[in-house]
Amino acid sequence: MSSTTHGSDPLWDHLAEHAVARVWMRVRAADRRHPQVLDSVIALFVLLIGLRDLYHGGEHQTLFGVNSVPLWVSTLTAVAQAVPLAFRRRAPLTVFWVVLGVCGLQWALGVALHSDLSLMIVLYNAARYAPPRRLPWVAAAVLPCIAVLAWRVEPLARRPWTGLFFVACAATAAAALGLAGRIRQGQLAALADRAATLEVEREQRERLAAADERARVSRELHDIVGHSLAVIIGLADGGAAQAALRPERGPEVLRIIAETGRESLGELRRTLGALRAEVPEAPQDGAVTVSSVATTQAGAELHPQPATADLGTLCERLRAAGPGVTYTASGHTSALPPGLQLAVYRIVQEALTNSLKHAGPHTDVHVAVAADARAREVRVRVDDSGRPEGEPAPAALGTGHGHGLIGLRERAALAGGTVAAGPRPGGGWTVTATLPLPDPGPAQPRPKLDAGGGRPEEGDDT
């Protein structure tokens, strides 16, 4: 039996308005709950119509040879035809062979009863529920059996070919109904499986989208908070070390710490504000307005994402924490797409943060960004000189495993590029990134980049 309820079938939804269809749907529902009950009712019905031919008398006993055999033999065959039907869905093939054998024996004796209807029932049953590879054997067994009926039982024996034709048509119709039920059941099962598969795929897409969003937010927060905290900690350590020697620098250090903290807090608010969805509201008059939770609740002012033009300010901020930082840019980096500029900015920011964390405030860092039109790529390189000899390692800025290099590789991969990091000859550390320039569309002009990657932009050499 199909496990698909009629509620998922558009045909039954359309016919549900009719009284006959409603009754049939109730019968189907009851059959799904208690299939043995319907099978037992069918078996009882077949038994009663067979016994009626034996004990009611009438023309049937004369025409179909009932009087030609003892009554107990006919009664036994009627019972043997009906009782197996109570198990027709539990063992469809077994019931078919039993009923076919009893019908063949009865017809060989020259007797036909209305309980012979059981053969059509088991034919339908086998076509619908039996394994498909057994159906050819079922068809091959039925044909000789109904031939016995056509040639042995009166009055069919008077014109056997005509009788064989009509009985074969009835058997074919029963098998066709069973096959139609099997096909429909398979189609409904396939639709249910497809719906379940689509639901699983939808949930997987939602989980992947949520994971991508978490990774993006994690990268943004790591870049914003990690860099600012590294600069603040470097400034605080340097200020504490020079408090006794140069106390006049204390207010300047505190000012830079406050500015860095405010900038970090502003970026954090903008990032979190961008994550809040703008929810449409429907007032009483039907007008639709859009309110941003980020702007109404937090009051955070939205600003553009950092770009390559902000790299100079980034280097100045790190220079205030101690390291000597130089920055050179080749090509018109400000003409790069905004997404690519953000990737360059975050890669440089993370590399500078790592230099401050691991090499200390007395290292020298060189940042180079080149936009090469011929090679259609942007190259980023950050070198530091490492920790000076004899200087103790800087205090750990946090616990646990860092995610900086992982975030760098993820950002470069999102832009279609690569990142490499490792020690440089002579000491120190090098981070290099290569990001491809996107091909402009047919209606978009190419960015005006310096073809040789040799002319720095105005004010880029810092």
Report on the architecture of this protein.
57% of the residues lie in helices and 10% in strands. The protein is an alpha+beta fold and 462 residues long. The strands form 2 sheets. A 5-stranded mixed β-sheet has the order 3-4-5-7-6. The protein has a two-stranded antiparallel ribbon with strand order 1-2. Strand 1 (278-281) and strand 2 (289-292) form a beta hairpin. Helix 2 (19-33) crosses helix 3 and helix 6 (92-108) packs antiparallel against helix 7. The longest helix has 83 residues, at 160-242. The two termini are 79 Å apart. Residues 188-220 form a coiled coil. Its EC number is 2.7.13.3. One of its GO terms (molecular function) is ATP binding. Residues 339-439 form the Histidine kinase/HSP90-like ATPase domain.
How would you describe this structure in keywords?
462 residues; Heat Shock Protein 90; five-stranded mixed sheet; two-stranded antiparallel sheet; rod-shaped; disordered C terminus
Taking the alpha carbons of the first and last residues, their distance comes to 79 Å
Q: Estimate what percentage of residues fall within beta strands.
A: 5-15%
Count every beta strand, where a strand is a DSSP E run of 2 or more residues: 7
Question: Residue ranges: pLDDT <50 for 5 or more in a row?
Answer: 1-8, 277-300, 397-401, 449-462
Domain module tally: 2
Mean pLDDT: 76
Shape: rod-shaped
SSE order, one letter for each helix or strand: HHHHHHHHHHEEHHEHEEHEE
Give a short account of the largest sheet: 5 strands, mixed
Major beta sheet, strand line-up: 3-4-5-7-6
What class, by secondary structure content? alpha+beta
Radius of gyration: 43 Å
Helix content: 55-70%
Tally of individual helices: 14
